[in-house]
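Course assignment 3, question 2. Fill in each field.
Student: A.L.
Task: Predict the tertiary structure for the chain below.
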Amino acid sequence: MKKIFLVLIILYFGCRDFEDNFPQVDVNINLYLDNPSNINLQAIGNYIYLNGGVGGILVYRKSLDEFIAYDRASPYNPTYDCRVEVQDDMIHIKDPCSESEYLIIDGSVLQGPANQALKRYTTILNGSQLSIFN
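Answer field:
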C-alpha cells in the first residue's frame, strides 16, 4: 500500500501542468473593435499589445470571428521581466531573453529552451465587443 501511495505522489508532482508555475492573475478585458485605438484588429493577421495579465497581453486576429490572446510573459521564466514580441514576419513570436520562438497561430514552441506554449486567455467576440478573460 505504501508503494502505491508513493507512486501516486511521484506521478502527481511529476505530471503537474506548467500552469501551476505560471503566476495567476485575474484578466477581464472588454475591447471594442470599432474604437480607433484597436484599428489594427480590424484586419485578419494583425495584432495589438494590451496592459494586463502577468507581462501584458498580445491579441491576434486569426480569422473573421476568431481572436487569440496570449500573456506576453515568457512561459520559460514568467517571473523575469521579459516580454515576448511579434516578429516582423507576423508569424513568429520571440522571447528576447531566452531566444525561444513560438508560432502566433497557436502559441506552440518552435525552438529554444522553452518547452511550454504561451499562456492563453479565453476570447469571445460578441458583435464589435471582444472579451478577454480567464
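Instructor remarks: The chain has one domain: 23-133. Residues 5-19 have pLDDT under 50 and may be disordered.
Grade: pending
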